[in-house]
Amino acid sequence: MTPSLTREDVLAHRFAAQELHRPAPGAPARELAVAGLGIPDVPAPAAATAAAVRGASPDDGLVLVWGARGAPALHRRTELPWLVGALWPLDDADAAARITTSRTRAAAALGLGAFTAVASAVREVLAGGEPVSKGELSRGVTERVPDALSVDCEPCGARHVSGGLLQQAGLAGGAEVLRGGRAARYRLLPELAVPTAAAGTARLLRRYLGLLGPARPADVAAHLGTRVTAARRAWPGDLLEVTVDGRTAWAPAEDADVLGAAAPPAPLRLLPAGDPWLAARDRDVVLPGRARHRDVWKPVAPPGVVLLRGEVAGTWRAALSGRRLDVSVTPFSSLPAPAWRLAQDEAGLLAAVRGAADVRVLRPS
């Protein structure tokens, strides 16, 4: 019999899987489960904040790279060789779908050849050993790849390799993203090599379903920036089929005993912009209805979110004023008094991450 779950069951399961309950004080340090899919770190210190709200800190084994869809995220360095193969397109059609997503139609005809050309060029540019700027990397790659892979860029007033394609193929070229100073720089991760074929994609899909499931092939396809046909091709065979409010979805088979049995989410969390919780592609499950989606998933300068018993109940932004951190909370509807007290406690974690000596939570006027 197919297990039947509610949306609330799914949110409770994800809350537990993503370790948002937090361990007891004094518990031994652990690897963050969400690092298995990557912890977004734009804007910084998003990754450190995502770790803090889970009662942890990013460990030394995490490296900032261009991950799924070319988005910068922290991944375990030991897993990068596997991740390169898992993110590599399955075939020409899959590559074309990802390139089309990055608005480079002329390049789509080159399929996998486009990814191979750009990744190989990235490796050549970074082979000198010294970190380079984004502009230097882009110029060097543009000089080495077919013109079909470049676009006319109005802001730059120049023609250069598509930024979306560069970032999607950059990890395969061995690009590590370095923070510090006014702009990011890039250097070579010598242990990585340009793949000849995709490998490990099903394992990556299982990780998505373990942290953001139960979910559907379309959700995983959106995570990779491709079409659902590609996700179905790599779909793992040992999954558990469930229904969520009558809709079919899938989860790892080993989650069978915990689905529907997770403890209720904690009363309140302040999650940073781009937190792994928000990486779920079934956004109507995370936040029913679309009226507030633009408030949460802004393409530029997105806010953090207030998670009230597992529900997105508002947004927040923070600003340093001297040694004090001001956290402005904008609830979608009135919050009860206990929630505001909890928000003040949670804001203390944000202040600690940013090195602030004091913190205050500001309510809407």
Computed structural class? alpha+beta
Order of helices and strands: EHEHEEHHHHEHEEHEEHHHEEEHHEEEHE
Strand percentage lies at 15-25%
Number of strands: 16
Largest sheet: 5 strands, mixed
Radius of gyration, Cα only, in angstroms?
21 Å
Instruction: Give the N-to-C terminal Cα separation.
Output: 52 Å
Low-pLDDT runs: none
Give the overall shape. globular
Number of domains: 2
Q: Supply the number of helical segments.
A: 14
Please tell me the overall pLDDT: 94
- Helical coverage, percent range: 25-40%
- In the sheet with the most strands, the strands line up as 12-13-14-15-16
Descriptive report:
The chain is 35% helix and 21% strand. It is an alpha+beta fold and 365 residues long. The chain has two domains: 4-188, no CATH class; 268-362, no CATH class. The chain has a five-stranded mixed beta sheet, covered by helices on one side. A three-stranded mixed beta sheet has the order 1-10-11. Strand 10 (239-244) and strand 11 form a beta hairpin. Helix 6 (112-126) packs across helix 7 (134-144). The protein is globular. The termini are far apart.
